[in-house]
Structure formats: structure tokens, C-alpha cells
Queue: 4 jobs
Job 1
Amino acid sequence: MAIPITIENLLIKNVVEWARIEFKEGWNPQTILKTISAFANDIDNWGGGYIVIGAEEENGKLVRPIKGIDPNSVDKIQKELLRYCKFLKPVYLPQTEPVCFDGKMLLLVWCPGGYERPYACPKDPDSKSGEKIYYIRKLSSTIEATDLDVKELMSLAHNIPFDDRINPKAEMKDLKYPIIRNYLQNVGSSLLDDIDKFDIKQLAGNLRIADGSSEYYKPLNVGILFFYDSPEIFFPYSQIEVVNIPDPTGNGMEERIFRGPIDEQLRNALNYIKNNVIAEKVFKISGQAEAIRVKNYSYEAIEEFLSNAIYHKSYQIHEPVTVRIEADQIEITSIPGPDRSISDTDINKYQMRTRRYRNRRIGDFLKELHLVEGRNTGIPTAIKATKANGSPLPKLLTDEERSFFSVIVPIHEAFLGKEFNQDADKENGIVGKVKRRSKKQIKECILKLLTTENLSANGLYKRMGYSGNASKSFRKGIEELIAEGKIHYESDKLRDANNVLVKG
């Protein structure tokens, strides 16, 4: 049975987090069986992992050139692997595939999280009746589970994520062959090589989007969400609603509803925002060949926030993901909110780390399509993109019950109808601000300039990028700083515009 990810995507493109990959120089049932059981236990709901037999690692990284394994030994290893996996309690059978990489033969072992976890592994795999131990993965290591870990594994046995459950109302015919084929093309799956030999049941089995006994083989919820053209029939309001309100009165309001497979509706909604909302301004700087470019919103940040909303919403709650675009902000809301283990302080600091994922299989598919970042990196990526654009930081909102989660992304100040003065602000170390400064900003700028040199009021005015008649706010700022004793004129000629101001 083929594995729905290429060895190149796994080892070079880093589609899967490195903590989910184990390298084994050769076939060693003593260690490999323990790692298989640990991936199957999937205590952190990562979606299991991959073992690459024939590849050496150093500090968790692939060592090249690849040593590989003897091609004549592949069949023997797979037979022994099948025999040893039957010693697991309950029995767990991973999927294997011989693959070539760098001209060498490897055996790729895919160990998805098991439905019947926890799995106990013989401490000595050659002793079928010997002591059995629970193993788990922590970072990139396979370790024995503690008593507390075992209790957690027991509780997880009764908590299969919703996206990984069988959908009793769906039939295999609901999984659409063209949509599956398109997905396999997008991720470059090796399944494409023999796709014409597979029927829909075989394809679904390879992708693990269906499960059950032979007489009750049904699509999983994740299969319907990605590979059925109208998932809202099974999951009402599994859609993205975008409302564009350019005027507070509602004049010119536009509403778009994006339906279909969830990766498709995500792409379509993002394309709408990119083509109809994202705008750019270019500012020339005197003495500098390269212009300054800023966007009203960082598209990369919006992409991360909306993708995370699709990833983390509950499809058991019949509410859409909403995007409300106003004149000065974009608000993205999904239901429910983040896990209760994430404190309000962590949310305010943009440190939303969790071990529990609501939709681990949805996350796996979105990661393979490069629509979401890896583990706990989506928010930091969005914040980084926001800062790079010089935009105000977003606001993350939820309530005590964690019933919703909203991200409010403010527009860049250059798009608020104010004159952008990047030239003067850059000179004064205030990059990304606007000419219409507040009185507080004016006073701070005056003090900063007077720290390094003494300037007249006229000199300050020009250095701060002003021209024409004197700004009332500027004059008021100087008067207040003098009254506060923070600056003073060098002489008593107050009416002389060339009278030098001195700090302190």
C-alpha cells in the first residue's frame, strides 16, 4: 500500500516536522518496534510519524550520502516487521513502502496515530509473552511512558478527534475521484504513478480518509471535508463568509460565501482578499534610489490567521468562519476559542502553545498543501509578517468560556488618510509613522533630536519633516517641554526663530 507523501517531500521539503521522523541505519526490531508503538500511541495528537530504514542520522538530521539497505532484503524486512507488529497489544500494522532516494533503497514506514490506542510493546520483541511497556514520543525521542502518561493515554483512547471519526451518514461514493487526484498532484504524491489501478476504496485507504470493517467501510469526517464537493451538506455552515464594509453606513457592502472542500474555500477566500482588499502605497525617499512600499494589510499575516481559523474551528458546531472587512480593520472569527490551557496572558503575548489539537488530520492535510505552518508557529509567523510591513500588531480576543476566537488586524497608518512622511521619520529613527503625529509623539521626537545636537525651532521643524506654516501641535509641544523644564532656549530672545533650543 503506497504512502500519500513522497520521500522527497518528507526529507527535503520538510512537510512533516522533524520530531515526527525517525531515522534507522538498518533493520533493528528491538528499537523500531518501540518507535512504531510510540507513534501509534500519538500522545500529543501529532498524527503519528515516519520511520526511514536505511538512513543514518546525526543530531536528528539526515546524514548524506545515504547508505540505504540491500534491495534484496526489503521483502524479508517487511515480513519480519509484520510478524513483530502482531506482538503489539492490541495489534497495530503500519504502512510500508520501498522507495529510492539518492540512488539508494530505503524502506519508509508510516505509523499514523492508532484508533485503538494505547498500544503496549514487548520490552523484548523476540519474547511474545514477555513484559509489555507503553512507549511515547517526546520531541525526537522514544521513551517509556510514566504512570501519568499511561493514564493520559487511557483517557485519549476515548477521545478520537472529530475529524478522524467515521461519518455514519456518508458513503464511499461521496469521496470524489477528481478532487482526490487534484490533491495528489498538488502534494506530488507517489500514488499518482499507479492511480489508474486504484478504485475509490483503495485510494481512500491509502490516504486514510475511510475506515471500518469490510461490511461497514465509511469515509472519515476529514475525507468529507477535503474530498467532497459540498461538505456543508454533512457539516452545515462549514464555510467562510467574507463581508466587505468599506463605509460604516453599509453603503457599498459586499458579502461573499465560499463553500466547497475546505482547502478550496480557503484558497478562494484568500484570493478574494488579495485581489480586492490588499493595497499598496509607494513612497519616494529623497537621496535614496529604492522606494518604500507598504501595504494596508500584510497578506501573509491574513493568510496565517485565516488558515488557522479553518484549522482550529470545530466542525461539530454549525457556525462559519467569518471575515469582516471594515474601513480600518479586518476581523477574523472562528468558533470555539483556544484551549483553556492557554491563559489570557499567553494570548496577549501571542504565545499560544498547546499540546492538544482539535483537528489533527485537517492539520496534516493543510500542512502537506503548505496552507498552514508547522506546530505552534502560525501566530509567530503572522506577527513577524505584520512587523515587517510596519503595521500595528493585531488584537486577539476571546471570552472566559472560550466560546469564540477573534483576530482584529488594524490597517496600516499610511492608509488612514494621513500624509506619509517616511523620509523625515526615517532620518529621525521613527520609521513607519505618519506626519500627523500626536502631541506626545512630537514631544518625544523633539527630545530625541535635541539629545545629539542643539537646534533652533526652525531647524527642529524642518528636521521633523514639516513645511509651510508652523504646526500648532509643534508649537504647543515646545511650550509644554519648556514649562516642564525638559528644554530651554539658549538665550532670552524668545521671538527669534533662530534662537537655539537646548535639552535639560
Note: Residues 1-159 form a domain with the Methyltransferase, Cobalt-precorrin-4 Transmethylase; Domain 2 fold (CATH 3.30.950.30).
Job 2
Amino acid sequence: MSLFPQNALKPGVRKREVFGWAMYDFANSGYTTVVLTAVFSAYFVGGVAGGEAWGTLAWTSALAVSSLIVMLTMPAIGAYADLRAAKKRLLVLSTLGCVVATAALAGAGPGDVAWALVAIVLSNVFYTYGESLIAAFLPELASEDRMGSVSGWGWGFGYLGGMLTLGLSLWYVLWAQGQGLPASHFVPVTMLITAGIFGASALVTFALLKERAQPQVKATEEAGVKASLARLKRTWREARSFQDFSALLACSVAYQAGISVVIALAAVYAEQVLGFQQTQTMMLIFLVNIAAAMGAFAWGYVQDGIGHRPALAVTLAGWIVMIVLAALATGPGLFWVAAIIAGLCMGSSQSAGRALAGVLAPELRRAEFFGLWMFAVRLSAIIGPMTYGLVTWLTDGNHRLAIVSTGVFFVAGLGLLTLVNVQRGIAAAAAANEQGNGSSI
């Protein structure tokens, strides 16, 4: 039995196109792995901010600002992409923006707080635009009953890209440390490595991935920003017609808040609480990526077998176990176990969430609905890290209490998931499609 069966794809979709789609996950995973998780987050707190008490809050605030920008703009961008069949064009622009802003992080040295904050906000905004746009291609490629496995192919392959970027960065860091060079020298180089791999790998996506959607109105002013915003307003107003998609959004806000903490602050926690060094942290995150790749790839097939909602529920339970272990860890051993569990849950939960959003989104309004889904994800990226940052600030740097507070998000997500009725949600999406061109619900 093939791991990549042709019948998992819609008629007319070739495997090479799915490979091109998955290559975008491969391309952008290095950004989250190196910039947000393993290297720049800890470097900003300890290096750029000089280890000041406000460093963690400044870092989480920058991520919150970028998420707020995406929340206010991405749904309208998604609606515009649907009306103009412009997902691929916008994906190219967002990729270019993220690559340039990531390269700009190389210019942030000790004391360059403003430069670093502006660059991280811009890079994270453009990265998130790309995440939403590439996700909107998934329902065009995968058959409805294999959405989970195809989503898992992308997430699993994506973590390989993260490992490649992190591996090359770790190699350079070890070499630089052997030469006696400081972090202010080798961290900027890792930013250039990340930007280079992102840009080069994304070229494969642009070459192979097709824009299958067709413009829903003529390419005139009626398909411009004004029409996009009007359509978005109607979507929010008519949200009751998509009660299960709305429940998924609420669930996503909760559990993605916890995941956002792990992505943005795992390295900070390891170094501030357990005394990890830069190379130890990078090796830890490398192992997490291996576990995440395995989890995303394998769990995609499990999703198709047991259903998206049960599959997501299992991963959320795993996250709760991970938080307990991380909070109890007083040395590297138990924290490494927690990190492996985090990796397994990270790939599988994010893959399951994307697949479930694809199942519940009406065909003619996918980019718009994935824009709403990304709105929820970005809201979580404000709530989660800001909660962590505020707890550490108010408790004079108590990271252990902050990680315990993160567990509440996963418990809430598990509870909200019970409100999602997948079959009812699929029926609502089908009814919307029958109305034709999203003109009414």
C-alpha cells in the first residue's frame, strides 16, 4: 500500500503539485524553528535586551502586535483572494516580505531593540499571511475523506525543512563558538541562513502549485478591497449558519494559545529555568522537530481513520501531559521527555486543526474562511505569549508558574472541541455552496 496514494487527491491533481504545495511548509518551517523558537527568541531576551526583566514581555508584545495586525487584515485579504483568485500572487508577495524582514534581523545586535522589534513584527506578519494562503490550497488538492493525511504530508515534510535550517544553523554556531566568536556574530548569520532557505525552497512551490480557483467577479473595482471588506462583514454577521466552524474557531483560540507559548518561549524557558546553553537549546529543538515530523505525518492517517475531532482531542490531552512534565522538570532529563511529547503533539494538532478547517469551509469561500481561521490562530498568539510574559513580569521572572498557566489553554480547548459536530458542519458548508458564489448563506 502506497503512503502517498493517488486516490487521496482530487481528480486532475498530480502528485508533483502536492509536492510543490508541501514544499512551502518545508520552506517556512525554518522561520518558526530558528527565529521564533530556537535562536532569536532567546537571543533577543539575553542579548539584544541585555537580560533585562522586561525582555520577555517585550518579545511577547512584539509577537502580539504582529498577530493583531494579521487579525485586522487577513480575513479581508482572504476574501480578496477568493474574489480575484489571487491566492498564489499574494503568497509570492507575503513570502518576499518575510524573507526580506528575516534577513533584516541579521542587523540586530546588543541594544538594537527597536530594529529587532520592527523586523520581528514585519517578518511574523508576512509569515502568517503565507501560512493562511497556503492552507487555503489544501481543499483544492485533497479529496474530502483524505484531508487529514494530505495535511499531514505537508506538516511532516515541513518539519524536515525546519530541521535542515536548524541543522545548518547549529553547524555554523558550533563552528563559530569553536573560533571564539560571540552570539552577536553567529546569530545574525543564522538569520541569513533561514531567509535564504525560505526563499530558495519557496521557488519550488511557485513553480509547481496552480491557482485552480476562478475569479468570482470581474476584475474591476467591484472585486477590490471595498467588496472584500463587505463580504467579510457579511461572513461575521452570518456566522450562526456555520456554528461548527465558529466552535472550531473558539477551540483554536484556546489550544493554539498554548502552542504559541511553546513555539515562542520554549528556548527562553530552557535557558532561564534549566540553564540550557545556546547549542543545547538548538539540539533540543532539533529533536522536537524530528518528533513533530513523525507526529504530523503519521497522525494524518490516524485522522482519516478515527475522524478529525477525536484525533485533535487526543493531541490536546497529550499537550496537557507535556505541560505537567515541563513544570515538574528540575533538570534536563524530564524536560527532554516533555519536549519530545510537545513535538509529537505539535505536528499532529496543527495538522488536525488545518484539516478540520478545510472540511468545514465552504468551497467557494475557502481563502476567506481560512482567513477567519487564521484570525483565531493570531488571536491565540496574542493571548498565549502575552499571558506568559505578564505572569513572568508580575512574579519577578517566575517562568515555572507561567508554564503552568499555559496548561489552562489546552484544557479549555479540549472542552470547546466537544461543541464541534463535524457532520453538521459539513452539511452547512455544502448548503452554502449550493447557494452559489457565496452571494448568500
Note: Residues 15-213+226-435 form a domain with the Growth Hormone; Chain: A; fold (CATH 1.20.1250.20).
Job 3
Amino acid sequence: MNTTRRKFIKQATTGLAAITLTPQELWAKPEPVKLTILHTNDMHSRVEPFPNDGRKWGGLGGMARRASLIKQIRQQEPNVLLLDAGDIIQGTPYFNFFGGEVELKLMSQMGYDAATLGNHDFDNGLEGLEKMLPFAKFPYLIANYDFSQESKLKSSFQPYKIFEKQGVKIGVFGLGIELRGLVLEKHFGSIKYMDPVGVAKEMVQTLKAQKCNLIVCISHLGYKYEDDPNRISDIHLAQKVEGIDIILGGHTHTFLDKPDEIISKSGHKTIINQVGWAGIRLGRVDFVFEKGKVKTTPQTTSSLVIGEEFDRF
């Protein structure tokens, strides 16, 4: 046997031996993937903390503190998704003088991944909405508002977006509240409101067809309405639409101490969370995926209070 052939056989045999000796490397199970979802709602232009003068929520909130907290969490967690459930603007001189520019620029710097529309996004009419949108370096997702008759805005929104984190696909869609009765008609023009329950069912089917491992709804419908139990809310949505994994809500300024869980007849669990208003809290829900499916849904905490303790970051 010549030298070249002997050398080739030796190299091939050595390679086969290495494969035989380390089968665990070939058949190793993929590591679980952790996803951290952070969320806010109803910030209402509260750029600065509430004055610490003895009033309710004094010393709490502030976008600089929120940015520091988000940065800290991103340093600790490998896969973070940051979402907002509407009414980012209205309520302080920042909006009165700058029309949403300050709030959206700061949220863009924080790296928000998506937001949905709240009723107060129409306070300056469609012209005001159009003017502020370029300052948002993240998409507004809204599935149940039809902008097709508004030539300047019909291409500004999308119903959903799919994010991917370490091979896990997260489908996120947005739902807005009925504007009629909350907003002057001249301020929302020819926008058509569509039934959020029917639209949500369509979104679930669409996102499942695209093999999403988690389906998230950012909602400005409101948590629930004690005085009008038939009014569509996040509770209704979870009860009537199977397949949504988590609803991150807004509008009712509800401080949930921990996320609600709604179990369908087939056993599907939908988590609902909302963190008050004014940027006082940052919501957080953690998911762990194994083989593409949710292994556990531990709530690290439902919300983190943004206060003076975060000034040091």
C-alpha cells in the first residue's frame, strides 16, 4: 500500500473514531430558549417622573429611568421584546408643544420593537398622527382599523409583525378600541373600525399558518368594564378567541399585581397583563421554549416599579 493511500485511510479512520466517540454532540437536544417580553401602556406623555411632593405616585416614573432599567434587563437576558399598548401621547406640555416628537424619539432610542394605537393618538387629528409617525423608529401594529380610505396614512400601519429570537417565532398583532364616542369624528376621518374578536381570530390563523411559536396581542381595548360587561375588553378577547398566548393591554389604566390567566375549554391558556399608566411600571413576562413549544410560563414579575432606586443605572 503506497504512502498516500495509507495516510488517507488513517485520516478517515481517525475522523470516524471521533464521531463514534462523541455521539452526544450529534444527537444533543437543543437548549431551551428564554424570551423576555417587556411592555408599557398609557404613558400619556409622562417624560419626567411625577414630582416628589407628597402627591400620589410622587417620585415614580420617568423615561430616563425606564431606559436605564430596560438597558439593564437587556444586559441580563439574551432575547428581549419591548412593546407598547397605546396612548403614548397626551397629558403633559411635552405633547402640547411638540405633538409627540419627544415621546417617540425617546422610545425609539430605547429600542421599542412595536406599539399599537390608542384613542389619544388621534387627539391632533389625522394630520397630527401623520406628522408624528416619522419620529417612531418602530412599527405601529393595528389590525382592526381600516385606513384604506385615508390616502396619506393607508400605508403607514401593518396588522402584525413576526419577530424571531434564537429560532423562536413570535407573532405580534395590534387591536384598537372603538374611536366613535371617544374621539371627535373629524379627528379620525374615514377610518373604519372592525370587530376585534373577528379580526383576532383571523390574526391567530394567519400567524399559526406562518408557524409562530407564540402569539401576542397588544391591545388598547381595555382590561374589563364592570359597568358594561358586554363591552369588548381583553377579558372578552381571551374568552372568545382561542390561540392568543398573551394579551398586553391598555386604555383602562389597570394596575395588575400579577397577570390574569384565562383557560379555554380545550385547555389553552391566555395570559393578560396591564401595568397602569404614566410609565410608573414596566411590565415583564418570561417564557421558556423547548423544541419550539412553551415549556413553562414563569412570571418573573408582572411589573417593575420605576422609581428612585433606578437612578443609579
Note: The first strand starts at residue 33 and ends at 40.
Job 4
Amino acid sequence: MNTTDTDTCPIDMMDTIQSNNYPIYFENSLGELAKFIDSGRYSRFFVLTDENTAKYCLPLLREKLGNPDNFDIIEINSGEESKDIDFCIGVWKMLIDFGADRQSLLINLGGGVISDLGGFAASTFKRGIDFVHVPTTLLSQVDASVGGKTGIDIDSIKNIIGTFTQPKAVFIEYRFLLSLPARQILSGTAEMLKHGLICDAAYWNLLKESDLNNPTADLIYRSVAIKNKIVLEDPHEKNIRKALNFGHTIGHAIETYSLLNDEYSLSHGEAIAIGMICEAWLSYKKTGLSAADLAEVTKVLSDLYPRYDLKSEYNDTLLGFMLKDKKNQNGKINCTLLSAIGQFSIDNICTNEELLEGLGYYAGW
């Protein structure tokens, strides 16, 4: 099925975005979190964090929450390597040791790994306890924290095990981004650019003219609103939510390869930027993306993200990763492509030869 209706995505600005039965707070978000906890609905609450957010973000959270006595911290190692079943078991065991019951709340304070792992751990502990997200990276603010996807990796296949479980609230605090290195900011920027490419050409043009090393709060708000509008229409990814997969079929394979084989591992956003260039080429070949749009997408992304040496000897391994992708249909590799900047096309089966052409386009650029 192909969808190219840009009316799916327009938004109106507002202070709080209402998602699938939960709010996404922007203004005074940590103050709203304090009020949420003080509501009396929870017996205890727990904060899932890693060593970085424990150092840079937890102090601000403590300040707002007043360090209550029904508050315990669960800390894991940062990085995608922590998003597996062993770390999830560790979180479950800590919840048991701390005496968590079904009226407990898990606060996921961190980036995408914390959001994905914490959401999965909470959604399965005692058949499900409530959780909220406090995303601390740009990537998690505009992507992982919104939409109700939880997940862990197995055998380096990203998010292959997970649930669709909505948080009770999301609290987006812009100040957390001030401590991030530029590379992490650009990682999140890739998802923002994707939002423009799939369904908002005006937003794409605005991003092109902005300082993407330092995106403003209103740009972040707009990205969250775009993703949220898509998710509301298709919570379980049966139809138009597949638009959000643009760049991810090839991008996830490249990300996995770099994590396993390179001393310099790509960030998620760097890998997705490569995936978007490759899949823009596929869009040019298969779904009507113009040569001018292909050139524009390629230049914008190539100028922002470092060159990755995509050698042809990687091809069989990359295709192997793509074949294991959870988005595939009947053993065939399924991609979301573009028909124009701002218009998406879902459910495009791509042959190995076509995918290799896309990889070759990036390698030869």
C-alpha cells in the first residue's frame, strides 16, 4: 500500500501534546513530573538511569522531586550493548529486591536505550507496571520516547523483542540537551530531518535553514508533534506508521554492522542518515522521487554527517541483517520510500539487487 497524503501530518502548536491517552509535557516538564508523582496513585517509584544521566541529569530531577523516601535508583551501563535480555533481567531483579509492587512507577531517565529497555521491563514486570519517560537526548525526545514502542535486541537484531505499551506521560526537558556533545545532537537531528522528508516539506526546508548543531525547542516540539500525529492514527504500525521506517531498513543494518565490526561505531542518527541516502536512491528508482529531490536529500545529509567507508565486501553481511528486519513480509525486504520530499510510500518490496544499488549509490557518492 502506498500513502502520499501530506494532510496526515500538519499540526497546531500547543503547550502540551496529547498522545494515545497520555500527555507529552514541554513547559515546566519536571514540575509536572513532580505533580504527577505527588498524585498519590503510586506506592513507590524507581528511576532507571545510566552512568551519564546519573551524573548530568539525575541531580536536576532530585532537585525537582525533593528526594522523597519512596524513591530508588536502578543504574545500567550506557550504550546499545545494554539493551538485551541480561540487562533486562537485571532491572527485573532490582525491582524485586527493592520491593516493587503493581502500584509502583518506573521513571525512564535517559536516551533511547533507557526508554526502550525501561518500557519493556515495566510492561512485562508483574504483567505490567506504569512507566513514564524523561528523555535526556535529542534522539529520545523526538523519537524513542513517543509512540509506545518498547524493545530489546537479540543477536544484534535491533528491537526484535518488544511490546506496544504506552507510557503514562512523557516529560521533555530542553535543559538536558545542554550537556550533550555535538555528535549526540546530530544523531537526533537525523530523525527530525526524516520527519520532514516523509510528510512535511515545509519543515524539511525550515530545518535546512536552521543550525542543526543547536536545534531550538520549537523545532523539537514540531518533530514530536509530527511523530505523535502519525502514531495516533496508527498505534500498532499496520499502515501509515510505517512511514517512520524511512531510512531504517538499510540504516539499522549499517548500524548493527558498525557496532559489531568497527572500532568507531556509528551513532543511530549517523547510520540512519546513510540509510536515508540509500533509500532515497531506491525512491528515485521505484517510487517517483525526482532526480532534483534525490540530489537535495543526498547533499543535505552528506554535508551534515561524516563519511562512512561502505565497502562492497560488507554487502552480504548487510543483506543478512536486512533479511532479519522485523518489518519484512514473507521473507522479502520491505522498505518505506519517498515519492517526493514531504510524501512517503509504504510497503515497497525491494530485491537484493535493488538494495545493493542503493548501497552502491552511497559508496560512490
Note: The chain has a mean pLDDT of 92.
